[in-house]
Amino acid sequence: MALGSSFAAGPGIRPVINRGALRSGRNYPHQVAQALSLELTDVTSSGATTANLLDTPQRTCPARSRRRSAP
Question: What is the value of pTM for the model shown?
Answer without folding.
Answer: 0.73
